Amino acid sequence: MSLRRIPTLAVAGVVAVVAASSALAGASGPAARNGVLAYTAVASALQVYSQGPEGEAARLVRSASVDLEPAASPDGRRVAFVSARDGNYEIYAANADGSGATRLTRNASDDFDPAWSPDSRRIAFSSGRTGNSEIYTMNADGSGLVRLTTSGGRDENPAWSPDGTRIAFWSDRDEDPDVYVMSADGTGTVALTANDDADGLPTWSPDGSRIAFTSDRDRQGDDEIFVMNVDGTAVVQLTNTGGAVEDWWPTWSPDGSRIAFVSDRAGDADIFVMNADGRGQSSATDDEAHDFTPSWTPDGRILFTSGRAANLGVEIAAPNGSGRRLVAASPRNEDSPAWSADGRHLAFVSDRSGEDRIYVASSTERGARVLVQAKGFRDADPAWSPDGRRLVFVRRDRYGSDFLYSVDADGTRLRFLLEARSLSSPDWSPDGRRIALALNGEIYVVNVDGRGRRLVSGAGSNSSPSWSPDGRFIVFASDRSGGEDDDFDSEIFVVPARGGPATQLTDNDEEDEWPDWSPDGRLIAFSRGDLSDLEASLYVMRIDGSRQQRVPVQVPAAMPSWQPLP
Question: Residue 162 belongs to what H/E stretch?
Fold first, then answer.
């Protein structure tokens, strides 16, 4: 069981990465030699990750794009929540209507899981500032920080007892996650559960007599909701959906008669409500977005995180789903990731400043810097030179003209290369002497100074060229075939870089787009499906079009970009 149970990615443009090695497990190992894929996902968090061959993930960049984990203060006046709007996850507090948001924590690590004390004067939360998750408390204005746990394991999801004297939380300090209780000053820690299963996400009943929690102890391979006495006895299972369905993140209503929780029984994460004895289970939300982290307000409504809007935001609704509205959101989008040849830097497009700009992030450090500024223009489609010293990109004005520019990696020496009505997806040749690009629906190759334009592809609408590592071929997307049902779906083609007949690699009734050649030249990644309809998936295939297999990304994703291995 993954106790965080928050979708890393559920509606908005996102930059993230995933290891592609599992997609072609039987392909004699070529995927394993190619590093990871950066990609754009329709997802909750606009994030850049680096994930290694053993599955270890390191966050590279997090944009100002996500508000989540809302918690209403007991006096009903404030809402605490987590946001990445200033670069990494921090704790914020706002008025109950979402206005007047104020940042409470400030450090280079992530802070999350805010929980109000019963008197609304303090907030408990989890933080990774020491290298692993620990529990802290602070005053409601962010002052008076106190560290409560020092276990060396993960201590997360603090929950105050109704009388404010104790805090429940979960910890894997003894290997398996279990529910613990400690005094509000961090002393007297006691384990309430102790077994080989995963127990977590505790929440107190309003009368302080019981604790609801999430566990996979029923041995069916799924998470369910349980309740127990505050000393860990009399454990009762409340949900029993079985199979691959997950029920998690319980929270008690103010009067103790009901429990809200998250369930994916309808296909994606939604908010459900049930009586405190587990009967009368019904959905409070029902949409194609992920809704999660419910929290009751004192007046009996439910705050929760939702991906229904452009990005993850905080919404509120009655237990029956009525009166649903957005409380807090920060709409930002990021896309078009492009790795430098040494795999140490990632360029991408972000509107975090209010306009589309190109940013560059390090694969080993947090944060990102804007590459070049220009008011009144939108920048797109960055691509690195093979030596990593320059980038080429597209700049668009408000009148519909596109311009191709190059710039040094430090943002200096901006150079105009060419202008066109429709220009996109430049890609530098491996020898650094030419640039392939989509120009007015055709694939062209030009010299690095923008001159010597030469047509490579013809017929149909063509886009997204990508050079083979040896510089001999260019793979691209085109609707020239018409697809299986003759409705002109985009497919993947490959053509000699010097020009000549194009060979079709894919043929199906979906959109195949954004091909990108692997560093060793043996694989091609691409996206299949319409990203705007939340149906796109990442695929990998051999360069002859065989062995097409889906990359296991659990959200709509497109625009793959292989990370070169050092």
Answer: none
* pTM as predicted: 0.56
Mean pLDDT, residues 166-173 taken together: 95
What residue has token string 């560290």? 147
Q: Report how far residue 382's alpha carbon sits from residue 437's, in angstroms, rounded to the nearest whole number.
A: 12
Q: For residue 115, give Cα distances in angstroms to 269, 468, 499.
A: 22, 52, 62
Q: Two tokens at 39?
A: 């990609």
Q: What are phi and psi of 22, to 5 degrees?
A: -75, -15
* Alpha carbon distance 216, 219 (integer Å): 6
In 174-269, the DSSP E strands lie at 178-183, 190-191, 199-204, 210-215, 224-229, 236-237, 247-252, 258-263
| Rounded-to-integer distance, Cα 132 and Cα 155, Å | 8
List C-alpha distances in Å: 261 to 69, 201, 338, 438, 452. 13, 11, 39, 48, 62
DSSP track, 165-178: SEEEEEE-TTSS-E
Can you spell out the DSSP letters for 221-237?
A: SS-EEEEEETTS-S-EE
Structure tokens at 514: 């954004």
Tell me how far apart the alpha carbons of residues 221 and 209 are, in angstroms, rounded to a whole number. 29
Phi-psi region of 484 (alpha: psi -120 to 50; beta: other; left: phi over 0): alpha
Q: How far is CA 82 from CA 185, 376, 444, 457, in A?
A: 23, 32, 46, 48
232 CB-side CA count, 13 A: 13
Name 408's Cβ contacts closer than 8 Å, sequence gap at least 6.
Answer: 389, 390
Dump strand ranges (E) for 351-502: 357-362, 368-370, 378-384, 390-396, 402-408, 415-420, 423-428, 434-439, 442-447, 454-455, 462-467, 473-478, 491-496
Rounded CA gap, 1 and 154, in Å? 14
d(CA 461, CA 440): 8
Select the more confidently predicted residue: 316 or 73: 73
Query: What's the whole-number mean pLDDT along residues 200-212?
Result: 96
- 423-432 b/e (C-beta count within 10 Å ≥ 16 → b): bbbbbbbbee
Burial tier of 22 (Cβ tally within 10 Å: 0-12, 13-18, 19+): middle
Give the N- to C-terminal CA distance of the chain in Å, as an integer: 34
Q: Which residues contact 386 (CB under 8 A, 6 or more apart)?
A: 341, 428, 429, 430, 431, 432
Does 292 score more than 60 pLDDT?
yes
The predicted pLDDT at position 95 comes to 87
List for the chain the helix, strand, coil content (%; round to 5). 0, 45, 50
